[in-house]
Amino acid sequence: MDSPQSLAEVLPVWYIGEHNTKRLHPVTDELLNHVQDLGYDMLTTTITNSHFQTRVLSLLRSYNQAVEEDSSSSQVQALPLIPALEDADTPLTPSDTITQYVYYTSSWIDLGSPDPVIAHLSRQVFIREIAYAGFLNASTVVIPGPRLSNGSNGISQYARAVKEALSAGSYLHLHVLMPMDGSKIDSDDEDVGDLARFARPEYITEAQKPKSPDPYSTWDAWNTIRTICKYHSRLSVALDLPRRLPSSALQSRWYSEPLRILNIPASSFLVNTRGSFVLSKSHQLFIFRCLRLKSPPWILLADIGSIPGVDDPDMIMSYSTGHLSPEVAADAPSPGASQSASPTPAEAAQMASKSSKKSAFNDPTPHLSYLRFLQRNQPAKTQLERFGGGFQDYLQSPLQPLTDNLESITYEVFEKDPIKYAWYEQAVAQALRDWKALQKTTSSEDGAVVIAVVGSGRGPLVTRALNASESTGIPVRVYAIEKNPNAYVLLCRHNKETWGGRVTVVKTDMRAWKGPTQSDGTFGKVDILVSELLGSFADNELSPECLDGVQHVLNPNHGISIPSSYTAHFTPLATPRIWSDLYSRSTSVDPTAFEIPWVVMLSQFDYLSFEPGQPEVPLQLSNGTKMSHFNLEPPLAPVVHTAWEFSHPLPPSVLAQSSLRRGGSAVGGSGGFTGGDGANEHNYRFCNIKFDIQEQGICHGLGGYFETVLYSGTEGPIELSTNPVTMDQKSKDMISWFPIFFPLKTPMHLPSRSEIEVSMWRHTDDRRVWYEWLVESFMTVNGQRIRLGVSDLHSSKSNGCLITQAQAPHHTHPIRPHPTSSQSHTPQSPKQSDKCTMPVPFWTIGCLYGATSVAIGAFGAHGLKSRIADPSRLANWSTASQYQLMHSLALTLTTVAAPTNTLAMGLFTAGMTMFSGSIYLLVLDPQRFKALGPVTPLGGVCLIGGWIALAVGRRGAIAPPKFR
């Protein structure tokens, strides 16, 4: 049977609450326990009650009467002030269950009212409620959204009030309740005590009279609010789902926003042929997508009726598990575009009748049971979701493989890819078959095809090259080239234990390698050059520079490079969550955060440019696809354009010119455009690309991808792709690379039917490579193209990828390669998660001290009591063993987390020896070892010094594994 944890890894957990806008009973811990017994996870409550509303309305009435009585006077009446909250104004009090409630501010206020009196009263109510929620230590507060009829001025007033509320507490999270489709939140009978009803006619303008709703109006209002609030991390959206969902484009836009709550009113449910309450397929798909987010929203079932069993304690209740038959939970026809977005009065009466019948005779919580049914039958997590769990929208700086020696765990992440290495093996095998079919000569003395895997890492490509030789029956001579001294150790071990000595392992920078050593002492050539140097944007990890530097060993007549070419691609994105994270970093941690291309597993985002004419209803919703098989990828295919391309091997004339420019000779020109001699300027690139924007939005940056042709021969091309348009066709389920993100310092507003123009450069000064990017927006009005805005020119030069100079010396592993590799053998690369540079003596000491501390502690708890009766001496023995155990753990962890911090490790070792050792001896024989008394505090000082050394040693930080 699967454990709950293993099930959570496959199916996300849903948190569902009960919300009633007209709750008759005040919330209590007993009511909370009751709804949790029914299967709910939380309960909602207003912060204040009707008593407080009556007080405010009475104050307003008194103020209006005073104004009327003084109408003949020239004096201005002071605005009304609401007295402090009284105990009768709120049912809430601090308790241990306070975090299990969702709190609502009053819906009857109007923060953006054009009437200054109404706005003034509304702000007072709002701030008092927020302050009391903060006092209660509440963490989740829902604020009804702004009244769009008040216009832009009303929205800005509303946003200003929200910004003020965010400063009321450090732990208070505010969620603005917004309708998804531009309509009003469902309410059949508007509150007669709504303050908006009392706005004076002279303040109501024509612009504020009701108009036909614009589907994007509520999103635009939300965008204004969060922009004024500087993308605050404690501000998010509570999204109200209508009965008929809006366009796929608007759904994707809301999906990209910081969703915290999905509010599903009773009117959004349909009734199927069995009389059961169900949601349309569009609702199912949207909910499934939202619940896959890194921080999934909670679900609130709103106004689905009274809580069963509250008024009838004898009613038999059952916990809602979601075990429904397929017939009961069968889909109902989705409301068409011509149908009402809300139930008609007849439909509403029918639904109420069925709800009452179901509650009385069958399922007391039919809506909840259906949602639990969806939870049990949701699509399982994909391999990428399980692999990248926790890394959604997590920003990582790109790898610097030329200047940094990667850790074993980073290599291990790459090797988990189920597609990449299989495709590489196919590419090598096809190249070998073509080699044999074309009867090419080889560069070896014995006729074997010479393969060099440059940047071998832990050896997965070496294994695949050997596999390809065995599957084709074509003998090969394999060289593994690796500069990382730690990976080199593992490659040598693989060669002895796994590859049977068939590989020549060379420790050197690939650019310094002179080629295979021949029997006469000269250096030969390579027939096939295999590498995996690509980054998230193809060339951002210096693949062009590395392969240029090693091309001198490739046979100039018939040499093959795998990969043979690669292209970089990008598209504009809306990524509010990532931009908020970057803004926070730029103001507190790294001022250059917006100048770095970040590697990130994009999750909560929206494509701003997509192909027109795509079906409004995804095919999977109309072709009978079961909900458990839904594809949860973005519903609209984006427009992704190519930035530039690199091909290998380069023409000899290009490399000759590069060599001529290196060193600054007179015939080599006047140097590079951005510095240096210009020897690497052939790897400079520039592009200028336009994207059409169909719907209004905000551009936060550019998402970057790549495609590569590993090999293209007589059997067709073998390709890899992270481009969302082509990935499924070329390398579906590949997980080695996450996209790259080029952020904008200032989000750019884009109207519908506008255009953006992206300029991007790949610069080099022979010492490093960096990117620069610029975004402009345009709109065509009456045939004239008008510029709307231009971003900063962003440059990653200060964080560029360094091109280090290759070192000439290299060392060749003494085991000679096997002359052929056609034997039946399928080697496997073992896992290696420990660092090769781990200080083994300290690791051993820590383990030994830890083991002895357990034995000493057990002896003190049992055997020592027969020899020593003094409780204080026994307590000292126990203290010494506990300190020894704790610091032995600290020592072993330090060898992993901070292997270079030998000072901390030495102090821990000395401190344990002196502190615990002296106490053991003093407990056993105080008189004989009384001279050790001063040693104990000295050992304590060493232990304290070890912690200080660990804190000061900056290289000891534990970092998550890197992804490409």
Automatic annotation (TrEMBL):
<keyword id="KW-0808">Transferase</keyword>
<feature type="region of interest" description="Disordered">
    <location>
        <begin position="809"/>
        <end position="834"/>
    </location>
</feature>
<feature type="region of interest" description="Disordered">
    <location>
        <begin position="327"/>
        <end position="363"/>
    </location>
</feature>
<feature type="domain" description="PRMT5 arginine-N-methyltransferase">
    <location>
        <begin position="385"/>
        <end position="562"/>
    </location>
</feature>
<dbReference type="InterPro" id="IPR035075">
    <property type="entry name" value="PRMT5"/>
</dbReference>
<dbReference type="InterPro" id="IPR035248">
    <property type="entry name" value="PRMT5_C"/>
</dbReference>
<feature type="domain" description="PRMT5 oligomerisation">
    <location>
        <begin position="565"/>
        <end position="802"/>
    </location>
</feature>
<keyword id="KW-0949">S-adenosyl-L-methionine</keyword>
<keyword id="KW-0812">Transmembrane</keyword>
<feature type="transmembrane region" description="Helical">
    <location>
        <begin position="935"/>
        <end position="953"/>
    </location>
</feature>
<dbReference type="Pfam" id="PF04241">
    <property type="entry name" value="DUF423"/>
</dbReference>
<dbReference type="GO" id="GO:0005829">
    <property type="term" value="C:cytosol"/>
</dbReference>
<dbReference type="Pfam" id="PF17286">
    <property type="entry name" value="PRMT5_C"/>
</dbReference>
<dbReference type="InterPro" id="IPR006696">
    <property type="entry name" value="DUF423"/>
</dbReference>
<dbReference type="GO" id="GO:0032259">
    <property type="term" value="P:methylation"/>
</dbReference>
<keyword id="KW-0489">Methyltransferase</keyword>
<dbReference type="Pfam" id="PF05185">
    <property type="entry name" value="PRMT5"/>
</dbReference>
<dbReference type="Pfam" id="PF17285">
    <property type="entry name" value="PRMT5_TIM"/>
</dbReference>
<dbReference type="GO" id="GO:0016274">
    <property type="term" value="F:protein-arginine N-methyltransferase activity"/>
</dbReference>
<dbReference type="GO" id="GO:0006355">
    <property type="term" value="P:regulation of DNA-templated transcription"/>
</dbReference>
<feature type="compositionally biased region" description="Low complexity">
    <location>
        <begin position="818"/>
        <end position="830"/>
    </location>
</feature>
<dbReference type="InterPro" id="IPR025799">
    <property type="entry name" value="Arg_MeTrfase"/>
</dbReference>
<feature type="transmembrane region" description="Helical">
    <location>
        <begin position="840"/>
        <end position="864"/>
    </location>
</feature>
<keyword id="KW-0472">Membrane</keyword>
<feature type="compositionally biased region" description="Low complexity">
    <location>
        <begin position="329"/>
        <end position="354"/>
    </location>
</feature>
<feature type="domain" description="PRMT5 TIM barrel">
    <location>
        <begin position="39"/>
        <end position="376"/>
    </location>
</feature>
<protein>
    <recommendedName>
        <fullName>Protein arginine N-methyltransferase</fullName>
    </recommendedName>
</protein>
<keyword id="KW-1133">Transmembrane helix</keyword>
<dbReference type="InterPro" id="IPR029063">
    <property type="entry name" value="SAM-dependent_MTases_sf"/>
</dbReference>
<dbReference type="InterPro" id="IPR035247">
    <property type="entry name" value="PRMT5_TIM"/>
</dbReference>
<dbReference type="GO" id="GO:0005634">
    <property type="term" value="C:nucleus"/>
</dbReference>
